[in-house]
Write a structure and sequence with these properties.
Layout: H1 3-18, H2 22-32, H3 45-63, H4 65-81, H5 86-100, H6 109-130
């Protein structure tokens, strides 16, 4: 099975379990990074937008990993400009992993977990590599 198919299948499992996983992921983020509260707003649409962007970029790993990592680099720069530290930016991907991967099941469960593990490691490596870029 291609990585793209594995990613899409894992996202189907996520939707089956959570519907929209935004609330579950951001609940973890606010607990792990209390300083993120400074960005919280009564209008939580930005959280949904961020989740959509992150999951779309994760899907890009299946089709074009180099492009996905360039997007991570650009997103890191943008977040730094608005005052979000790299550890919080990277923490979002760990929160995604921690919240979402337990929903994986079925015969491709191990492949889904491996794909997410490998890609999250690539994301963290990209963040570390570009953490001090201006």
């Amino acid at each position: 099975m291609l990585q793209e198919e594995i990613i899409n299948q894992s996202l189907e499992h996520i939707v089956e379990k959570f519907g929209d996983p935004t609330r579950a992921v951001f609940d973890i983020m606010y607990k792990r990074f209390p300083e993120l509260e400074n960005f919280r707003d009564s209008n939580s649409e930005w959280e949904s937008y961020m989740m959509q962007e992150i999951l779309e970029n994760f899907m890009l790993f299946g089709d074009n990993p180099k492009s996905a990592l360039l997007t991570i680099k650009d997103m890191l720069s943008h977040h730094r400009l608005i005052g979000v530290p790299s550890n919080i930016f990277g923490g979002m991907y760990q929160a995604l992993f921690d919240v979402l991967t337990p929903s994986f099941n079925g015969p491709n469960k191990d492949a889904m977990l491996e794909t997410w593990t490998v890609n999250i490691k690539k994301i963290h490596s990209c963040i570390a590599q570009h953490e001090n870029d201006i």
